[in-house]
Amino acid sequence: MHYDVVIIGAGIAGLYTAINLPRDKKVLIVNKAHPWECNTFYAQGGVTTAKDDSDIPVHIDDTLTAGAGLCNKEAVEVLSQNSQEVIQDLINRGFEFDADANGELLYTQEAAHSQKRILHAGGDATGRYLHHFLLEKNPHPMLEKATVIDLLLEGDQICGIVVMHRGERKEIMADSVVIASGGVGALFEYHTNASSISGELHGICLEKGIELENMEMLQFHPTVYVDNSTAQKQLLTEALRGEGAQVVDDLDYRFLFDYDERGEMAPRDIVSRAIFDYAQKTKKQVYLSFKSFDYDYFKHRFPNIENRFADLGFNLPKDKVPISPAFHYAIGGIKTDLQGHVPSVKGLYAIGEVASTGVHGANRLASNSLLEGLVFAKRAAAAIIHDVGTQCSGPFVKNNETLYIEGDKEKKEQLRRIMWDNVSIVRTTEGLEGALAAIDTMLKSSIGRLLKLRLLTAQKIVRSALERKESVGVHYRQD
Ligand SMILES: Cc1cc2nc3c(=O)[nH]c(=O)nc-3n(C[C@H](O)[C@H](O)[C@H](O)COP(=O)(O)OP(=O)(O)OC[C@H]3O[C@@H](n4cnc5c(N)ncnc54)[C@H](O)[C@@H]3O)c2cc1C
To answer: Which of 65, 98, 181, 360 is close enough to 9 for a disulfide, judged by CB 3.0 to 4.6 Å?
Structure first.
């Protein structure tokens, strides 16, 4: 099998790249699970856009401020300056964002945005609507339930991938490979991510000596219902706080104002740390309260949340919901330039959550990630069309490691607990060193390849967290 382009991942980044590649290119999208099992599908709040040209500098400023000094300013400029174009492209292709009776687009606000500039669809189902739309528009074939377990390289040239599909290992050759495999959710006990998001491609890159950066920068969402039994926990979008939901204790006390004068509208890292600290100090349960909402408005604006929580036994907006922070978003990742190139490997690109363009710095501004997926996918597609591909001669050294072995499941659970206890919202040298030792021990034990890849990714996160001694943005060192 030989393709011009293989895209790993069918979320917003993978699909929008595919849509921007001409039909006469031989393109294959490879995807680990059902197409909808990705973080894009679960996105609730919306997509940021500069509302008009005058908002571009303001959006850039908000993003740089949230990023706490670690953003790549040029990447942020690219993000904001291209936002209106990609949103207009979606609209021209037929996508319908929520609008009022006169057809005027409706914008919402989330924490750390200085004004309303977030577009949404289906009320609180932006990701689902957008993902469905992109799947419909995608003109290229997709190989589903195919897990990428290796990259094929010849010197500094990408040659293809190895997938496990229907119990068989298959080599798929390609002139260009785009990694759009998302974040690292499955490494944590509490997370909001799709079940397919487990950081394997990060691990493969580490094996190949491909640079990952800012891996310690992990965003924890402050308002998540974690009492359900599945690994993926139920997010309560930030747009709820943007429109009046309040973080309270059992006596309805709004303690966030004791930590930051912006209260519910402070950036995510501050709200997460405040909830974590207050719950630890007082041993009280923290809740999200919706009492400021009118019932009909809530039902119309947040229909999916209302439904999902009704299934869990809550009557929203009347009831308050117990919440905890949970892992949400990987800020760092595979280092790329602003066209998505992975600098050390010809023909290799990374985009979306798996990539590190420097857009988010030390803290992602809410709803900038779907936008990042769109803007950088379009740029990567343009680069692929422009770049000259080279074919490899092979044959390649085969990796014959067994994918799973008995005991992996228990070790995965152990890893998830270690990461949550020691590498989450508040970090200490002692906790990080303990986590690293436990990961190293597991890596030396008898394990399958897929667990090994997760462990390599986790090891890199912990090492990066140890290396960054100062607290900045989402990386908080108690010592
Ligand atoms: C609950 C939730 C709500 C969110 N809300 C918002 C929001 O309102 N606004 C916003 O901007 N952002 C939001 N985010 C973040 C945003 O959704 C993600 O950052 C973004 O969708 C990532 O897109 P992606 O294409 O990079 O990855 P994903 O959409 O996660 O897609 C990754 C793809 O890679 C595939 N894959 C992974 N590993 C392999 C492998 N080994 N082999 C083959 N395929 C593989 C997966 O199956 C999947 O198809 C939210 C995230 C979550 C979890």
So the answer is: 181
CA distance 243 to 248: 16
Q: Nearest CA to 372 among 331, 419, 311?
A: 331
Query: Both tokens of residue 116?
Result: 């309303």
Any ligand 1 atom below 6 A from CB of 358? no
Atom of ligand 1 lying closest to residue 201 CA: 41
Residue 446 CA to ligand 1 center (angstroms) comes to 30
Instruction: List domains and CATH numbers for the chain.
Output: 1-217+331-400 (3.50.50.60), 223-327 (3.90.700.10), 408-467 (1.20.58.100)
Buried-state track 49-63, b at ≥16 Cβ within 10 A, e below 16: bbbeeebbebbbebb
* Per-residue confidence band for 252, with pLDDT thresholds at 50, 70 and 90: very high
d(CA 353, CA 400): 29
Per-residue pLDDT tens digits for 72-128: 999 999 999 999 999 999 999 999 999 999 999 999 988 888 999 999 999 999 999
* Pairwise CA distance, residues 55 & 211, whole Å: 34
How far apart are the C-alpha atoms of 417 and 429, rounded to whole Å? 17
At 112 the pLDDT is 84
Q: One of 128, 268, 379, 454 is an active-site residue; which one?
A: 268
- Catalytic residue list contains 449: no
How far is it, in rounded angstroms, from Cα 47 to Cα 130? 10
- pTM of full prediction above 0.90: yes
219 alpha carbon to ligand 1 midpoint, in Å? 14
Rounded to the nearest whole angstrom, what is the distance from the C-alpha of residue 192 to the centroid of ligand 1?
11
CA Rg value for the chain: 22
Q: To test the ligand 1 pocket, which listed residue (370, 375, 399, 451) has its Cβ within 8 A of the most ligand atoms?
A: 370
How many angstroms separate the alpha carbon of residue 469 from the centre of ligand 1?
Answer: 29
434-446 pLDDT, tens digit per residue, is: 999 999 999 999 9
Both tokens of residue 371? 């936008």
- With beta carbons less than 8 A apart as the criterion, state whether 143 and 163 touch: yes
Report the residue among 34, 39, 336 best suited for mutation to probe ligand 1: largest number of ligand atoms under 8 A from its CB.
39
Q: Where are the alpha helices (DSSP H) in 8-47?
A: 12-19, 39-42
Q: What is the DSSP string of 163-188?
A: EEETTEEEEEEEEEEEE-----GGGS
In 3-state terms the chain splits into helix, strand, coil percentages (rounded to 5) of: 40, 20, 40
Pair 204, 161: CB distance under 8 Å: no
Of ligand 1's atoms, which has the minimum distance to the CA of residue 368?
11
389: pLDDT strictly greater than 80: no
